[in-house]
Amino acid sequence: MNAPVEPPVLPRRRPRNLAQGLVESIGQRIRGGQIRPGDKLPTEAEIMREFGVSRTVVREALSRLQASGLVETHHGVGTYALEPSGGGDFRVDPADIATVRDVLVLLELRICLESEAASLAALRRSDAQLQEMRRALDAFKGALDGGGDTVTPDFQFHLLIAQATDNRYFADLMSHLGAAIIPRTRINSAKFAHEDRAAYLARVNLEHEDIYNAVLRQDAEGARAAMRTHLSNSRERLRRAQ
After folding, report:
1. Which residue has the higher pLDDT, 20 or 166?
2. Taking Cα atoms as reference points, which of 231, 221, 108, 122 lies closest to residue 166?
3. 4 pLDDT tier (thresholds 50, 70, 90)
4. Which domains are seen in the chain, by residue range?
5. Could you give the CA distance from residue 242 to residue 238 in angstroms, rounded to a whole number?
6. Cα dist. 47→61, 105, 136, 206 in Å?
7. What are the backbone angles phi and psi of residue 79, rounded to the nearest 5°?
8. Which of 2, 42, 221, 232 has its CA 20 to 30 A from that of 27?
């Protein structure tokens, strides 16, 4: 009898890229109180010197932190820490998402949470929220075409869906989970899908568009189904990979 095959283990506390590592470091300082709500973050140049990264990495990390609701940027003034939403007791530490099984468990939670959020968002979204969703999807498509950061607009779109429920607990929970909920920040999702990165992300983009179109026409059942399909596709790809 063959021994059970263990799920592949990913390195702990080793970010997939420099930007994610910077997000985790600054996020930990904000949640831990070393950087308090209202404090101004160090300048881009100071962060570059401390962490030994480029300006592009710093800007991508700050963009992800802003999408997660941990900071806000005032152009020409600086970036300031915000109060972490909903208290600091519950959050997902990206370093703890170390195996494919960990990602699968998180996807199960997201399927339950975000499918219902999409349904409520379709009924309750405002025109302004719809415009923000459109901008996030356009940013995703632009990054896809240009080979840039797709994680930030991806998470921003899912967070906007949660905010459009008009139920702050959906948004609070999504903010706590942060950009670590996007599987490709922890694993090579395209590899598991057996396709190149561009083709994989193009399919993700189409799934996002299906969700958006259902929310646009205020089709609650359609939005629920589109979100469930989107997240279930990710789950099934990973299950097959195991």
Report:
1. 166
2. 122
3. very low
4. 15-81 (1.10.10.10), 94-241 (1.20.120.530)
5. 6
6. 11, 34, 26, 36
7. -115, 135
8. 232
Confidence band for 93, pLDDT divided at 50, 70 and 90: low
DSSP 25-81: HHHHHHHHTSS-TTPBPPPHHHHHHHHT--HHHHHHHHHHHHHTTSEEEETTTEEEE
Residue 191 has pLDDT above 70, yes or no: no
Mean predicted lDDT score pLDDT of the chain: 83
**What are phi and psi for residue 239, nearest 5 degrees?**
-60, -45
- In terms of Cα–Cα distance, which of 76, 13, 21 is closest to 53? 21
For the segment 145-162, the average pLDDT, to the nearest whole number, is 90
d(CA 193, CA 38): 42
3-state secondary structure of 54: coil
What is the structure's pLDDT at 88? 47
CA 155 from centre of chain = 3
User: Which of 15-24, 28-37, 96-105, 166-175 has the lowest average pLDDT?
Assistant: 96-105
Q: Check: pTM over 0.85? Answer yes or no.
A: no
Amino acid at 185: T
Helices 44-51 & 18-32 angle (0-180, nearest 10): 110
CB neighbours (10 Å) of residue 162?
Answer: 23
- Given the structure tokens 């960990």, which residue do they identify? 102
Alpha-carbon torsion (29, 166, 134, 109), positive or negative: positive
